Amino acid sequence: THYCSMGNQTRMRTGGLLGGRLVFAYLDASNVKDMDELVMSGLVLSFPGPDLLVHEWTSREGSREQTGRFEFTRKK
Prior knowledge:
This protein has strands at about 1-5, 10-15, 20-30, 40-50, 50-60, 65-75. By secondary structure, it is an all-beta fold.
């Protein structure tokens, strides 16, 4: 469950770690008044190296999707 700052809660499920990635797919969302409302519709977590984590969040508003990418590097 993703507790979004937009006030809704998207539920996603993953099939597990495959090729260094966790792919979370949209199941449903609570506190959504309209099916065209903005919700987070997917998440991919990638582990390309021992000190790097990549988040790719996908949001959907109606039929329009947009993905934002965030890279986190461990500071040593």
